[in-house]
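Q: Hi! First time asking for a complex rather than a single chain. Here are the components, and I think there are three in total. Is that enough to go on?
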Amino acid sequence: MAKALEGPLEEPLIFDRSREGRAGIGIPTPDVPIVDPHKVLPRLMVREEVKGFPELSELDVSRHFTRLSTLNFGVETGFYPLGSCTMKYNPKLNEEVAGLPGFAGLHPYQGEEMVQGALELTYELEKILEEISGMHAITLHPAAGAHGELTGMLMLAAYYRDRGETRHKVLIPDTAHGTNPASCALGGFTVVPVKTGPDGILTAKEVADHMDDDTAALMLTNPNTLGLFESNIKDISQVMHDKGGFVYCDGANLNAIMGLAKFGEMGVDIVQLNLHKTFSTPHGGGGPGSGPVGVTAELEPYLPKPRIIKTEEGYSYETDRPKSIGRMRAFHSQFTILVRAYAYIRRLGANGLKEASEAAILNANYLKEQLKDTYDLPYDVACMHEAVFSDKHQQERGITTMDIAKRLMDYGIHPPTIYFPLVVPGALMIEPTECEGLDTIDNFVEVMKKISAEDPELVKGAPHTAPRKRIDEIGAARRPRLRWITPEED
Amino acid sequence: MEHPENLKYTKEHEWILIEGESVTVGITDYAQDSLGDVVYLELPDEGDTITSGEPFGVVESVKAVSDLFAPVTGTVSEVNDALVDGPEDINDDPYGEAWMLKIDLDDVAELDGLMSSADYEAYIAEEA
Amino acid sequence: MPYVSHTNQDLMSMLKGLGPDYLNKLRELIPEALRSTSELAIPGGLSEQETDSLLRGIASKNTPVSELSSFLGAGAYDHYVPALVRNLLSRSEFFTAYTPYQPEISQGTLQAGYEYQTLICQLTSMDVSNASLYDGASATAEAVLMALRIKKKATKVLLSAALHPEYREVVRTYLAASDAEIIEIPYDPKSGETSIDELLKLDIEEGDVACLVLQSPNFLGVIEDIAKHTSFIHEKGGLSIGVVVEPLSLGVIMSPGEKDADICVGEAAGFGTPLAYGGPYLGFMGVREKFLRQMPGRLIGETEDADGVRSYCLTLATREQHIRRDRATSNICTNEGLSALAATIHLSSLGKDGFKNLALLNFSKAHYLAKRLRKSRDIFMGFKTTHFNEFTARFALGTDIDMILKRLYDNGILGGINLKKYYSELDRHLLICTTEMNTKADMDLFVKIVFECLEEKPWQKP
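A: Yes, that's all I need. Here is the structure of the assembled complex.
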């Protein structure tokens, strides 16, 4: 972490930096007469000013956000092994091409003849993702992974409605991301939890025990959040299909199986992918992402609008889709995110994608083997792209997962995902990704071992050198202050 | 962890203090300990009726949220509004300052199903 | 291969460390029946230079609005993005970070997010803003779901027919699983406002309606006096949801919050995010404090660290999916963090006066163009109300709007949106938008070509 300034790294709020009358970036000189709103609008509609808006110079603003950036930790700051989030390198080229006027400067309502390149890229990316996932059709419409999940759930509901059937339940394993049950509920389904087997994967028997005529789908993640491949998935799909149900797969962990296995061949009926994980588009401090959804031929008619088709005259939008669930958002897609993902995929190619997955698996397994004598490994088997440890051994010395996470910051490493999945108490979920070299992983292993042996008081007091000491999240929740208050309001 | 003998307990980790046909309700030391630092509490209004086994409120820590289930059926006669404003008392003094509701019972016989302190301790030992 | 750091020597030493049969073990991770046997049928990898030229080639098949003169709005407004915004957003500390779950090393994202929340509250005159939603349409759907949670007994949702058509579609998609009935309230054909008379005619009982959703300026460009509608819905026991698709208008027009709305949502991509063919954009939501617990999305709060230094962190997360799971207020996880940062930088760099002046400039340009167009005896204002930076022009009976648009396009002008596509009765109505990007010369040329076309009346020719 760059500690660029002396003393506590406290940057005033932009509002505290404001000085009355200071001019900002300015606007063009008006070339038309300025209309007084009072002359054309009723008095009670005119707004005089936005109270509290800051007044700063361009330098003030630049300095403020530059200073704020130094308080952040990104993939380029250091190792970021955040499990299930696939924090791989975000190539610079992709940022640059996404910003080309030919992509960034298109209005969504321009005629098709003006945006053939955009339609081509979208269409081609759909085809590529169909090939990688093994699904019949892909939509690039959803804005994020959870948005894709909801798209899938709404499609299932529409499918059953169409057949005059009602099914109320969706089975969800106890290792699932929280978005899974939330998306189910929003889609109108009731969640039925199913238990992960002793090997950390789901058994066909457990699924069969819960599957009935009122169950619409099983929603599982493969590879799952323990970093394990659901090797019974084919049998599980059979169980679901035999009783007229579907298999929804959360494809958040696709990074482990590109070119190695396809969802379509596992019996999966719907899958959502996360371009901001697998295909290197940046996480942006919490988005924007993109959550394409792939489906079987049977479910294709229910895909959201709009769909692109390729004809002899070029690409165009398909207008007649009577069974579609409709729109999930305005306009077409997270378009410039698609541009980045497309550039990434073309740069790697078929082999590169497969090698990326293989390197991700190797890195995770190497890391797991190096750490398993120091940290408890609840499922001691070969893993896919990530490994889940617990703080069981460290707890004997009073050190918890939270303490380890905070102490890692002092060594310039971002903590792994912690306390998830819920089936592992005190979980430390570590995903190194394919991008990291041996030296980085070895250093991480060394630091983890060192922390395990450190004075518990030192670890519990961490972080010591990060921009902040441990932050009081309890106080924040007990007395919520969610915006800056102007001095007059206070 | 303490579970006073003068109180009755439920499987949902609430304690009940019986005073004739009226009871006082809160959550146990065990419950507050497993929740962690409580940051938010939602309770019904005075005069509301609550039904045994149904949720009557919500208690939240930073990382967990839990429904409060009515241990008895009756009418809420008093609500601890101070606790809603400062729910941290649930961690500090679960059996004292952190009482939640006083309830006028519909049927005193309902109390027969509640656990004693010893039964409750056996129950949580088993649950853990 | 690109973006992988292993040397051959590293690979050898890693595999050696894993033991002799490890490679076999790794291969067996995926059951044989499911293991892909053939290579992916996608093209081989490219160098960076080749990728760059491939993507530039595709981009060149598109015609960006910067190469044209665009009068398109309708939910996507072409505003200038200052170099400062682009430059600061390209700092990898911002754009490569994850959601700030570890606040000690995420103060940049968190403080900027807190500033964003504050700016949205100031703009909308609301008490609480979340840290962003996907876009204006999904934010509107989330607001309706929120109203249905708050008004548990209500069975009806009222949507203005002058709400963006795609927003209405998204609300319908999101509500597919809900029992709530959606009723569309027509716009008044004279004023273009959501008809208060039609509202009063509705036979709905108090307590049976969750909300009324009203956009202002609405899709037809008309500024709605939402105070009247708000008092109606409040009398019926429902919530007033104000939708602002062009929030720059809030520099000139009073906000939904000032008109007593309960929830204000909308699209803030116009602040620092490029048009980008419709996404990623920036959904925003501001609400009254009493509805805080029912709000979807992330919230950032102020707190302190162990040394008492002012700090920020994600808070009130028990509403969210990762804790409340199937009972969460929404399933949203990844949102539009970087677009929210862009808006924060853009609004900060405009400042109080810059924002107001930019709003006035947009407003004045649309009034200039409308005034010029009205000089033709074949062009009228679509509605007897005023507008911000977008308005409906009504053409004389028999005018073929598509022919006018074609003529404009032949001259490098995107003339606006033929409203017939969305409202069959508006069959000679053109929706025209002007921003600071449209110069007086552009507008004069627009007028000249439209007038010429009206003179020629090509639609009358056989």
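A: The CA atoms of residues 252 and 360 of chain C lie 7 Å apart. Let me know if you'd like any chain examined more closely.
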